[in-house]
Design brief:
The protein is α/β, with parallel strands linked by helices. It has helices at 9-28, 41-48, 59-70, 92-104, 115-132, 146-160, 165-168, 188-196, 217-229, 252-262, 280-283, 298-301, 318-323, 353-389, 411-419, 426-445, 473-494; strands at residues 139-143, 178-183, 204-207, 233-240, 265-270, 293-296, 309-313, 393-395, 403-408, 452-456, 459-465. The chain is globular. It binds pyridoxal-5'-phosphate (PLP).
Length: 501
């Protein structure tokens, strides 16, 4: 590196090639890399800590350190054996698009500061709406994640109440108690949103869900009516397409009918499930168009790198009514039909997220995306069938998406459970839950994959989400074998303690 200025073009080309080769080699060999890093925090600190460099370090050294000290100790989200949480895998076009986005470094806050980026954002938002089955003419914006998108949607809904909160705030004046509704299966970002909006956690009503973990519209209607009776002001419902624990879909049409009856804003959180609407069989089960607002996460299932979420609202102008605020230094003459994307959220400076979506969607095409999603579903259904046919396992919930929720539950204990009175089931439930926690630990210490868990009415549940572009049948088959082996082994070791758990 010279004394002043950036890398020379030659230095740039050399370093760029090396990085691309590193990415190529990393992805080509990723199958053999453990999904989870094994280092302790102390080991990591020892590996990575160092004095602030006074003079520049040669790039070769930086790259070698990254290769040797950083990458092996990551959790590899872009790994074919990553089955935990929800997927967040990326693709060639997404990866190289991010490099170009950094090089252009456009700030997409105003049309004037980013004409083609803003125009492209309009284009890809229209495509995403079409893929998810939402009004392609709706207002939309790309933001960093679903959590903030839900906050923005609820802020727009709160503003629509006409209580003057934007100007006068909520404290020190006579306002009704505002109420929001979702189930206990909704994502914690809804809880965070009501914290930040001044609605308060006590005014987020957790509506009962049914045995399949879907919102009960009758309970929603009853809760809203009771709140009205008490003088509260219900204003929004968050329904979910792809709940975080089990991937359930709330009955959107019925929930929308309750919202219409009571004049409530319906926000549909389809962060995980929404883009599976590319598949007609999924779309038939989840009409996302009923939402006044909708959030979908391309960084989860559309093979696009973090962070990119799409927020839509068919209530034209409502997001801007909540968030548009133009100081003199940002005032521009904007051509007719164009958008200043800073008007739709709290974010002013915004990266050129539209480009990576444009590259990914154009590279795969709708049919290419659909084929890959259909394959994920096929693999998840295969696992679902295996677990369903194994007397030592039990399936929980039932998601239309490629997420399988299952429990190791030895056949003799399942029989004992079925024969026991509800009161006599508690020790069996404790044993089952302990067993599954051990099974997960054992699987995640092995090489077959990384899975996660949840706790729902059915107890401790193992979650296997299939969603990486590189996941093949052999990966799912190996994971299933490992799950079976772990279940038998852990049961064998734990069983002597059955009476004392
Ligand atoms: C993943 C997810 C979120 C949070 O998304 P971020 O983009 O990480 O903020 C919210 N809701 C649901 C249903 C999700 O699946």
């Amino acid at each position: 590196m010279a004394a002043l200025g950036d890398w020379s073009p030659e230095e740039f080309a050399a370093a760029g090639h090396e990085v691309l080769e590193l990415i190529r080699d990393h992805l080509a060999a990723i199958d053999d890399v453990p999904v989870l890093g094994r280092c302790t925090p102390e080991e990591l600190r020892a590996l990575l800590a160092g004095p602030l460099p006074e003079v520049g370090v040669p790039f070769d050294r930086i790259l070698a350190d990254t290769r040797e000290r950083v990458i092996p100790h990551l959790t590899h989200w872009n790994h074919p054996k990553f089955f935990a949480y929800f997927p967040s895998g990326t693709s060639g076009p997404g990866i190289v698009a991010d490099t170009l986005i950094s090089a252009l470094n456009v700030n997409a806050m105003l049309w004037k500061t980013s004409p083609a980026a803003s125009a492209l954002e309009q284009v890809v938002l229209g495509w995403l709406a079409e893929l998810a089955g939402y009004d392609p003419g709706a207002d939309g914006v790309l933001v960093n994640g679903a959590s903030l998108a839900t906050f923005y949607a609820l802020a727009a809904a709160r503003e629509e109440l006409g209580l003057g909160i934007r100007e006068q705030g909520m404290a020190g004046r006579d306002l009704p108690v505002l109420r929001v509704y979702c189930t206990d299966q909704a994502h914690s970002s809804v809880d965070k949103a009501v914290i930040a909006l001044g609605v308060g956690l006590n005014n987020l009503v957790k509506v009962e869900s049914d045995a399949g973990y879907r919102m009960r519209p009758d309970r929603l209607a009853a809760a809203v009516a009771a709140d009205r009776e008490r003088g509260y002001r219900p204003f929004a419902v968050v329904a979910v397409a792809g709940t975080t624990s089990t991937g359930a879909v709330d009955p959107l049409a019925d929930v929308a009918a309750v919202c219409r009856d009571h004049g409530l804003w319906l926000h549909v959180d389809a962060a995980y499930g929404g883009l599976y609407n590319i598949l007609p069989e999924i779309r038939a089960q989840a009409d996302l168009g009923v939402g006044d607002s909708l959030v979908i996460n391309p960084h989860k299932v559309l093979f696009t790198p973090l962070e990119v979420t799409a927020l839509f609202s068919r209530r034209g102008g409502r997001l801007a009514a909540a968030f548009s605020l133009v100081p003199e230094y940002l005032r521009t003459d904007r051509p007719e039909g164009t958008v200043d994307y800073m008007d739709f959220s709290l974010q002013l400076g915004r990266s050129f997220r539209a480009l990576k979506l444009w590259w990914v969607i154009r590279s795969f095409g709708r049919s290419g995306l659909a084929a890959r999603m259909a394959e994920q579903l096929r693999l998840a259904r295969w696992l679902h069938e295996q677990a369903g046919a194994d007397p030592g396992f039990r399936l929980v919930g039932g998601s239309p998406y490629p997420l399988v929720c299952l429990q190791a539950f030895p056949a003799d204990l399942q029989a004992a459970w079925a024969a026991a009175e509800p009161a006599g089931r508690a020790p069996l439930a404790r044993y089952r839950d302990r067993l599954n926690a051990l099974v997960m630990e054992r699987v995640n210490q092995g090489q077959a994959g990384f899975i996660s868990h949840t706790v729902v009415q059915d107890g401790y549940v193992l979650r296997v989400a299939v969603g990486n572009l590189r996941t093949e049948e052999r990966h799912v088959a190996a994971l299933w074998e490992e799950l079976q082996r772990a279940a038998v082994e852990e049961d064998r070791m734990l069983r002597p303690g059955l009476e004392t758990i």
